[in-house]
Amino acid sequence: MAGRLTTFDNYGPLGLLAPAELAPLVAAPRLASLGTEIVSEEGPSKDCHLLVAGQAYRHRTLADGRRQIMSFNVPGDLLDLQGLSLDLDFGVTALSNCRVVAIPKAKLQALIDEHLTFRQAIWRSSLVEAAIFREWMVGMGRRSAQARIAHLLCEVYMRHRAVGLTSGRNCYFPVTQTHLADALGLSSVHTNRVLQALRADGLIAYRGRELVIRDWPGLCAAGEFDPAYLHLPERLAA
Amino acid sequence: MAGRLTTFDNYGPLGLLAPAELAPLVAAPRLASLGTEIVSEEGPSKDCHLLVAGQAYRHRTLADGRRQIMSFNVPGDLLDLQGLSLDLDFGVTALSNCRVVAIPKAKLQALIDEHLTFRQAIWRSSLVEAAIFREWMVGMGRRSAQARIAHLLCEVYMRHRAVGLTSGRNCYFPVTQTHLADALGLSSVHTNRVLQALRADGLIAYRGRELVIRDWPGLCAAGEFDPAYLHLPERLAA
DNA sequence: CGAACAGTTGATCAGGATCAACTCGAGTGG
DNA sequence: CCACTCGAGTTGATCCTGATCAACTGTTCG
Predict the structure, then answer these.
(1) Which of A68, A131, A229 is closest, CB to CB, to B137?
(2) pLDDT at position A168 over 60
(3) Positions on chain C within 7 A of a protein C-beta
């Protein structure tokens, strides 16, 4: 059960390609099991990586072991698009068993150059990604631990919902409290206590891997969460 | 003297265009004086804005007045490229007197669609911008106040140097301590004390607007600064 | 001359870090 | 089948970085 693999594949912007073009690209997805590095923090790679199923996170580890998690990723995310033009400054690790498509950089570049709608989709998604980074900066710079955690859970829930991975107010988000702490700039001990408080306040139920939002308006309020920055389509914006 | 205007214009990626094409675009730069909003945090705009001379910062203000600064900008920066495709989630304010070129969105979009090298330059610069955001996240999440401040000063110095705005180890960076605090997630009082410590350690001299780096290796060490994430051309990377 | 703002200083407070121990499964190997 | 280990979560005690509050200085500018 641990690290179960989400059933359906999501191709994100690549999904805009004609099936005949998409099929050979995604023909042989690689499996990455829970905890393995999908993209190394070190050396360069010949490919870019599309997460097709499962969950992952981007991170950077400092010399003495401190770690900063920079994003949690869902199916459809291009994990290392930066690698197409620049050296990477982060690694990507699987949060669950994942299905990953490796796309040769030259091939991806060609697709971008040739397909306007694809290019626009990629462009847009990287703008949204930057907006999420800014939102995280606001959180780490100016929000309390409780607001940060609540905000992150709201964000995760909305992003999962946007790719069809929620059922009701539940979603599968298999992080440890240490992952949350490293994403939010907190210690794992404090993260634990704040989560308990959120549970005690009836906002969430969250044990292990399944996030259950018990009081969505309450959680949004606690996190000062406004989903505008995610730039989701109208239909998903609440 | 206050808010002096940097002498030379820098067109950043736009500089790649043929002079005949560039000239009409930048023919009538607008002046934005110190402290005025160049791009509003509220309503949408019909233009995108290129900072051509002077300095500015992007920021977001929360309901109760807390503020997060998201970037400091130098000449050549496109301040609100995001506005081309998405609603903005931040405002931009002038740190000094500025010269700003407003480019109609449709015009900018056309340039991007038609000029490959220009498009690549824009693309690259937005990847670098995202890398800088991530670096700030690492700082706010996992670095001490002293390291954060040292790191930011290193970054500012390097970026200024990359656009030719330094002389030796000096650069003009007219922020208040409150600006620094709001960029780094600190209080202005604490920022003041840490700056004093950096001065006392002989790493910097910084009074008012002129940043002087007295001990570059020392400052880099204090900030755990590695300029790789700025992706500067070889020649400027140290 | 006075207002307004940036910087500075001291005193106190608090949010969250750190250290350490303990519980509770889930695997794993004997 | 059970002892063992290992990772995650939990709890308590204590510490400390950095926040907050408040006063005061100095400068600029109207």
Answers:
(1) A68
(2) yes
(3) 5-11, 15-20, 26-27
Q: Under 8 Å CB-to-CB from A63, ≥6 apart: which residues?
A: B224
Pairing, β B67-73 against β B56-61: antiparallel
- Alpha carbon distance A26, A1 (integer Å): 26
The total of other beta-carbon atoms located within 10 Å of residue A181's CB is 23
pTM over 0.90: yes
Q: Which nucleotide is nearest to B190 (CA to C1')?
A: D18
Q: Which of B71, B54, B44 is nearest to B184 (CA)?
A: B71
Do the Cβ atoms of A141 and B185 come within 8 Å?
Answer: yes
Helix axis angle, A145-162 relative to A116-142, nearest 10°? Answer: 160
Residues 25-64, chain B, touching A (beta carbon < 8 A)? 60, 62-63
With a cut of 70, list the residues of chain B below it in pLDDT: 1-7
**What angle (nearest 5°) sits at the alpha carbon of residue A156, between those of residues A222 and B82?**
95
Q: Which residues between 148 and 207 in chain B have a beta carbon less than 8 angstroms from any beta carbon of chain A?
A: 182-185
Copy the structure tokens of residue B91.
């405002």
Burial class of residue A117 (count of CB atoms within 10 Å of its CB; 0-12, 13-18, 19+): exposed
Convert the pLDDT of each residue in A18-56 to its tens digit. Answer: 888 888 888 889 999 999 999 998 878 999 999 999 999
Taking only the tens place, the pLDDT of each residue in A191-237 is 999 999 999 999 999 877 899 999 999 999 999 999 999 999 988 87
Q: Which residues of A touch B86 (CB under 8 A)?
A: 124, 127-128, 131, 231
What backbone phi and psi angles, to 5 degrees, belong to B164? 75, 30
Q: What are the strands of the beta sheet with B204-207, ordered from one edge?
A: B166-167, B170-172, B210-213, B204-207
